[in-house]
Structures
1.
Amino acid sequence: MSVRPEEKSSALPISRKKVTLQRLHALAEERIPITVITAYDYPTGLRSEKNDIDICLVGDSLAQVALGYDSTTRLTLDEMIHHCKAVSRGAKTPFLVADMPFGTYLGGVDATVRNAVRLVQEGGVEAVKMEGGPEIADIIARLTSLGIPVMSHVGLLPQRHTALSGYRVQGRDALTAYSVFKSAKVLQDAGAFAIVLEAIPHQLAGFITQALRIPTIGIGAGPSCSGQVLVHDDAVGVWSGHKAKFVRRFAEVGKGAGEGVASYAAAVRSGQFPDVVGESYGMDAGQWQEFQKLVESAGMTPDAS
Ligand SMILES: Nc1nc(=O)c2c([nH]1)NC[C@@H]1CN(c3ccc(C(=O)N[C@@H](CCC(=O)O)C(=O)O)cc3)CN21
Ligand SMILES: CC(C)C(=O)C(=O)O
Ligand SMILES: [Mg+2]
């Protein structure tokens, strides 16, 4: 299922039909790169809807990007559901996936099923994503068997940054590369419909993509994956925190937005804004006189001298 840049041009006619699992597998088989972007609220969900995104991911990166926490481990299930509700009102056509927040799939199979059901039922998402390897394979198998599709996520696991002593590229030596590959295989066999490969060497990502039946979605994993994902705020240049090496900014919205806010404040301070809004906001002279009489007869003349 690997995708070579020179093969990417033979694109199928873009379908604006609802993206389904079947469609995602067809894209991977045809070697048409799958486009994935995160969304955290209604406007970003709507942006993925309007710009032909295949998968919209309510990533737990929203902890840092949208809520200002210092780690994704701070995000609660209730907070995630709140954001999923907003995104799902905007992103109707993309396949909608939510990250299961840290801790919500670590308390056993039954508790995990309850939490995933809440994301689907209350949050309105179609599938869940979870970070980890063989240690969560039984949970993935259970959810899949119950009809909740699962996207898995290996390589750099942000929810484990403490255990991993930071956000580090994974699989750079033969042994850890083999372990990432084995994990991917086990997760596929457990029933995952796709797998995120985060921050691993491009050769390893290409190898895994060729070896698996399910699509691989890369972030910092090179061009050979079946698809790519980026954090929305990284892609449009809004995120002002740490910029990982794999990030490319496709717009500078943060700069433009900052200039807008600064210009607004300057215009208010200088009296350049606002103008008098005439016409529909106007009061005719007669009504204005009536108003003044009402104020006077109520003895409510202004205090100001
Ligand atoms: N804005 C944003 N973008 C993301 O991609 C993202 C988040 N936030 N928050 C949740 C996780 C955290 N992620 C991260 C965070 C840091 C690095 C990072 O600093 N990577 C180093 C690797 C250094 C190395 O191992 O040599 C880098 O410089 O790219 C990578 C992914 C990915 N996710
Ligand atoms: C970057 C993607 C893969 C993610 O997990 C997130 O945004 O939380
Ligand atoms: Mg995540």
Note: The chain has two domains: 5-251, 257-297.
2.
Amino acid sequence: MFAIKVEGLTKKFGGFTAVNNLSFSIKQGEVFGLLGPNGAGKTTTMSMLSTMLKPSSGKASVNGFDIQTNEDDVRKSIGIVFQDQSLDEELTAYENMDFHGRLYRIPKNIRQEKIMELLELVELDGKKDNIVKTYSGGMRRRLEIARGLLHEPKVLFLDEPTLGLDPQTRNHLWKYIEKLNKEKGITIILTTHYMEEADKLCHRIAIMDKGGIVALDTSDKLKNDVGGDIITIVSSENNKLYSVIRSLPEIKNIELHDSSLTIDLQNAEKHVAQIVTMASDNSIPIDSISIHKPTLEDVFLYFTGRTIREEGANGKERMRMAQRVRK
Ligand SMILES: Nc1ncnc2c1ncn2[C@@H]1O[C@H](COP(=O)(O)OP(=O)(O)OP(=O)(O)O)[C@@H](O)[C@H]1O
């Protein structure tokens, strides 16, 4: 059985289509990533699947329950950790967990046992009686994940689980997420715009852009789709270089950016010398040249013609990160 099945899911805000006709399925026990730049529609998709937002059209089921006709059962069977923090700052970690357990009407003896088990899982058992106000960003995130698991959901929704966290804390959190999936068999759907995060955690990745899915597969297969190697050339005259080399028959794809060119071709090592010679013959300076195997960044570029970084961290992200730091 599929943990999640989505057919033609669409969300419009007035005349603007934020999510456009999405269809995909997620198997039980899978870690599935929605990767894309800010505004791609990731959070809107998660909000619809977790019944927080009504779709404009299309349908979806979570754990076999229809998100529009069976909202209560969907909610009972999922755990949600969204971007905006919802912990009570003045309560201890234990109290936050306990409050959530009461909301879900988990009997007291089971509740106490479960809370301790989960706090141990995220290594917060030693700090269970400290008030959340004193917690670091990473500790809060771990507590939110533990809390989202208290009612034993089969599917966990993680919206940008490591946004604004430092690399070390991010790594740490990835380990918990992997552990949850492996040890508890929980299906996880997460959104991210960190390539590395999607690459590390997700069994399959749907790359989203402008409300649609532009590619969906395992990370390896997506990279194979791009094929060959990627040469990146930085040059102050990249426009000229683009015109000079674009018609080389070996080139599978070539993209012009602000100060660089990316070229997709097989056996890059063989052709680098030829490209450098052509640049030199045309008096085009080259500041740097590098060859690498395709990354998810290249996959995004291949399918959209833009880099995710060009889309950039917008004001919304910076604001959220600032909020997290302040908290
Ligand atoms: N309630 C709303 N009303 C109007 N537009 C909205 C609303 N919620 C989201 N949008 C718009 O829908 C688009 C998709 O937003 P969404 O938050 O789903 O993107 P995202 O991929 O999750 O991006 P981010 O990484 O910034 O969260 C954006 O252009 C956003 O401005």
Note: Residues 13, 16, 18, 36, 38-44, 191, 193, 316 surround adenosine-5'-triphosphate (CB under 6 Å).
